């Protein structure tokens, strides 16, 4: 029987988002057992707990930058670091069946790899990283743009509730008609 290989691209931290992601993956692993193989590449700020559900774990440290233009330098460095981490598991990438993305910086990364574009990417929505933009804050605007692109270019959006699904459909506007969630 063929194994289903899932690549998880996330943000590992001591918080609800990572806990919800690992609980979802544990439930899938318990249900399918040896029929599934999980690999993760996760951004981290020092939290590197090993989980037995993953066959392979790669932790990517968030970039630390200095002013001026620290926000843009951090985005570029995080993008480069995630690319290096994905290169570390390049031999496994051709066998990947599905990709589960929970962090907005990873989906543009997937789109930059030609052979990964053909894989089904699931975006696991757990809330917005950008706040509601009341006044024009450029950082929040860039993060919101990345989040919108991540949701738009994913194959499926996984939402925790009906109200979150309604929120996503209002956020994506006309693009939400093409997204199953």
In short:
With 181 residues, the chain is α/β, with parallel strands linked by helices.
Give structural notes.
- It is a single chain.
- Helices cover 43% and strands 20% of the residues.
- Helix 6 (138-153) links the parallel strand 5 and strand 6.
- 24% of the residues are buried.
- Strands 3-2-1-4-5-6 form a six-stranded parallel β-sheet, with helices on both faces.
- By secondary structure, it is α/β, with parallel strands linked by helices.
- The protein is built from seven helices and six strands, in the order E-H-E-E-H-H-E-H-H-E-H-E-H.
- The mean pLDDT is 79.
- It has helices at residues 16-32, 70-88, 90-93, 106-111, 114-117, 138-153, 162-172; strands at residues 4-12, 36-44, 56-61, 98-101, 120-124, 156-158.
Percent of residues in helices comes to: 40-55%
Strand order of the largest sheet: 3-2-1-4-5-6
Write the H/E string, N to C. EHEEHHEHHEHEH
Overall pLDDT confidence = 79
Largest sheet, if any? Answer: 6 strands, parallel
The total strand number stands at 6
- Gap between N and C termini: 29 Å
The radius of gyration computed from the alpha-carbon positions, rounded to a whole number of angstroms, is 16 Å
Count of discrete alpha- or pi-helical segments spanning 4 or more residues: 7
Strand proportion, as a percent range, falls in 15-25%
Outline type: globular
Poorly predicted parts: none
The computed structural class is alpha/beta
Summarize the topology.
Elements: E1 4-12, H1 16-32, E2 36-44, E3 56-61, H2 70-88, H3 90-93, E4 98-101, H4 106-111, H5 114-117, E5 120-124, H6 138-153, E6 156-158, H7 162-172
Parallel strand pairs: 1-2, 1-4, 2-3, 4-5, 5-6
